[in-house]
Automatic annotation (TrEMBL):
The record marks H27 as: Transition state stabilizer. CDD domains: PPAT (cd02163). Substrate binds at S19, K51, L83, K97. Belongs to the bacterial CoaD family. One of its GO terms (biological process) is coenzyme A biosynthetic process. It comes from Streptomyces murinus. It catalyses: (R)-4'-phosphopantetheine + ATP + H(+) = 3'-dephospho-CoA + diphosphate. This is Phosphopantetheine adenylyltransferase.
Amino acid sequence: MTGPESEGSLVRRAVCPGSFDPITNGHLDIIARASRLYDEVYVAVMINQSKKGLFEVDERIELIREVTSEFANVRVETHHGLLVDYCKQRDIPAIVKGLRAVSDFDYELQMAQMNNGLTGVETLFVPTNPTYSFLSSSLVREVAAWGGDVSHLVPPQVLAALNRRLRKD
Ligand code: PNS
């Protein structure tokens, strides 16, 4: 084989994994920053069968595609299984994760070390924009479900989808 595919190191690839139920402005900020650092960024919607989401995986993917359409090097996919297996299949050497606070660090470090031990994949932590350091999909779902204003926390397409899902309008 010739070209970039034969030399994994020539094309710099990274994955931004998550549940994205739904994608928030905090996620979008990390994806945008990763897209400036890497040639190809894969946004991987990981399937957690034990969690029934507010949005189906296909809906999450569609929303992420809409709100990342301006980034030519971002692709959105889903994966059922281990993140390290997804990385191996796509020849992705780096996982990019946002760190919101010190409290995120313990679990993120555990996952990073586990993943590195499994296949050698590296995890790079990006400090979240302080504007979004309190933000999570679960808080957005809860506040939106009770009628609170989340318009400053999610892209307009996500806000519209939340309104449709929660108020069926
Ligand atoms: O958005 P989330 O729910 O905080 O993302 C967590 C996620 C999906 C990135 C993490 O749970 C994950 O990587 N799941 C895939 C299954 C896996 O590889 N588990 C082992 C982690 S060491």
